[in-house]
Description:
This protein is an alpha+beta fold. The chain is 57% helix and 13% strand.
Amino acid sequence: xxxxxxxxxxxxxxxxAFSVSTLLAIVLVILLLAASALISSSEVAFFSLTPNDFxxxxxxxxxxxxxxxxxxxxxxRLLATILISNNFINVAIALVLDFIFRQFITEAxxxxxxxxxCSLMTFxxxxxxxxxxxxxxxxxxxxxxxxxxxxxxxxxxxxxxxxYLAKLMSGTLLILxxxxxxxSSLLVNGTSIIExxxxxxSQNGNxxxxxxIDKAIDLTVKDQKHAKEDSDILKGIVKFGDVAVKQIMxxxxxxxxxxxxxxxxxxxxLIKESGxxxxxxxxxxxxxxxxxxxxxxxxGHLQEGEDFEWQELIRTNVFYVPEAKKIDDLxxxxxxQRLHLAIVVxxxxxxxxxxxxxxxxxxxxxxxxxxxxxxxxxxxRKIDDYNYIFEGKTLINDVCRVIGMDTTTFDAVRGDSDSLxxxxxxxxxxxxxxxxxxxxxxxxxxxxxxxxxxxxxxxxTLPQNIERRLSDHA
Length: 474
């Protein structure tokens, strides 16, 4: 007697599986899963592209590479478009799968299962149990399909083939960006407002706590023999994780590098003049660094003639780091890769300068000088206790050390600038003329020398009543 109902259920499932609407729904789910996979993988593909990848794409100058560069300029809007598109697709998958399961698993079947459960648990409502069974099956299937085929597998593949997938999806994402522009704009603007508020609160909290820590350090070491040196080291450790590479790097205009096509005679002359043990080698310009030359590798070739091909000694394992990388992370990478020098790249993939292991260590223990260093590292003139003249390219951190101020003194107005000239430009908004004075919170900045391209010298006047540390440079 029980075999007839079982055959009836099997026949109903068999007929449902071959209905036209069900077949179309299955095809639609497959297409939606493919779309979800492509959208999810494009997120990993675009945001895992390195500065070298973007440099290669710029040199390629194809339609797809140009689209990728165009999308790179709007990362927040791109991410918002990807998330919005993925959400629409995932909702569509859930709705279509719900329709399919209702064809395979009818209400009669779930009602029968619910009655069986309720016969064992009489306190349950059969209608509620039937709905819960259908909901659990649908959610479980949707979660499994989306996680496996819409997230995990595509993203693993995209990590390895990021450039290929970025090119494949660049055109589609540009179209989707235009379609979802109202939604993405609302999302980006809303998150920016929240982010700015949280950042301002976090920054105020961090500054307050850091000031408390600095005071605690001063109180702790004030009675020791080398109180100032110990205090500076401890404060350097406290702020170590907040310092970005851009704040300590040597800008490209001050980097001593050699052209790949230079003769051996020109190379030896450059090495003698610079005194550095590691020299970047570039092809045509500093944006195309091909390797690092270790001067010690030349020791066995000092007797070679002018036609010696020194280029064979270049080490091509160039280490690139972004300007925004924190120096504590960079220190770990230096240790892991056993390197002492890295090329700093900006957001466009161009070379912004270099950073060395010595630069990082100086943030903690102060200036490191050896027998080959010049006596004066920061070029400045002290007029009196409250007036100094610095080169415009002098880093703000170095200026603060010379005048005896905390390196966070100008954080509120420095913006993205790292040099004293950049700080004046932030305050003025344009390249000022010679003799122009700019004031900020009782600090005075006067442009002493300027050309058409940059500010060369600046005089800084300190407030008369300001408290400051006694500087080593003074």
